[in-house]
Amino acid sequence: MSLRNNQAVVLAAAAAVLLLTGTALAFYWVPNAPLEGFRQRIFYYHVPIALTSYACFGWAAWKALRLLWTRDRRYDLESYTAVHMGVIFGILTLITGSVWARTSWGHWWVWGSRQLVLFLVLFLFYAAYFMLRFSVDPGPRRANMSAVYALFGVVLIPISFLAIRLAADLVHPVVFSHDVGSKLTVSQFTTFFVCLAGMLALAGTLYRNELTGKRVDARLRELREALQ
Amino acid sequence: MTSAEKYATAAYLVVLAVVLLYVVLYAFKLSRLEREVSELVGLAREKRDRREAA
User: Fold this and answer.
1) Nearest CA of chain B to the CA of A120: how many Å?
2) Residue A150's Cα: distance from chain center in Å?
3) Contacts of A119 (CB under 8 A, 6+ apart)
4) Please, are residues A44 and A22 in contact by the beta-carbon 8 Å criterion?
5) B7 has a chain A CB within 8 A of its CB
6) Is the ipTM of this complex over 0.85?
7) SS3 of chain B
8) Are A193 and A51 within 8 A, CB to CB?
9) Angle between the A43-70 and A156-166 helix axes, to the nearest 10 degrees?
10) Neighbours of A170 (CB within 10 A)
11) Among all residues of chain A, which has the CA nearest to that of B25?
């Protein structure tokens, strides 16, 4: 087994161990939050998933920048794969957020919350990336257009991240703040970071697998053209 | 089981279900790739046989 395969196996194993540990800690170690109660446990998956989707979109923008800088075509596939992963984690953010909203507010979605709407805008922006990508023939033009689009999208990430603090609606809870009442305990922080590390490792594993699959797909296409 | 417990468990299960769905879709993709590799091997062999016959 090559070193590359070893790294992939280690990353996948780390994701499984960290997520199982995080889930066990969330359900059996962390006490019920004073205001939120048992439902606060959704936070240990929801927030890490949201942060992981931001990380994927950020990674896509970084690869897009490298494509535009170096004109190396391999970054196109890497940026595309990162957007693909970001959208998957974006879907999970919206679903877990909606489940939390249902149990906390009694509604699956609240249009009045700027945080929610801004995340939906970010998600739809990246969902439209696929429409743009597949409406243009493969080649340098498509790669450049996709890269510019992925770079524009990254601007929405800090806005979406900070919206929770900038928004005046106060509907969405602020977990990390300087307010004494909202500070997390040691057990809550530990569980949160274990879950965050697990989600990042899971995203890394899926990204590597997906990228390998897309590369094999592209090479098979080239091979077919050469053989026919 | 209280309502909050049901919803919290559902949120965790949804994540698991989506990851499993991804694995299933990826398995389909792998089997398609395997099929394509077999087809290309067949094409390459045909081409070699034709070259040898000529």
Assistant:
1) 18
2) 14
3) A50, A90, A93, A94, A97, A160, A163
4) yes
5) yes
6) no
7) CCHHHHHHHHHHHHHHHHHHHHHHHHHHHHHHHHHHHHHHHHHHHHHHHHHHHC
8) no
9) 150
10) 9
11) A210
How many residue pairs from chains A and B have C-beta atoms closer than 8 A?
65
Token pair of B47, please? 């081409």
Exposure b/e, A113-129, CB count within 10 A at least 16 = b: bbbbbbbbebbebbeeb
User: Rounded to a whole number, what is the distance in Å from the CA of A177 to chain B's nearest CA?
Assistant: 24
Query: Is residue A3's pLDDT more than 70?
Result: no
Selecting from B7, B15, B26 the residue whose C-beta is nearest the C-beta of A92 gives B15
Chain A residues near residue B12 by CB distance under 8 angstroms: 23, 41, 45
pLDDT-derived band at A180 (thresholds 50, 70, 90) equals: very low
pLDDT at residue A25 is higher than 70: yes
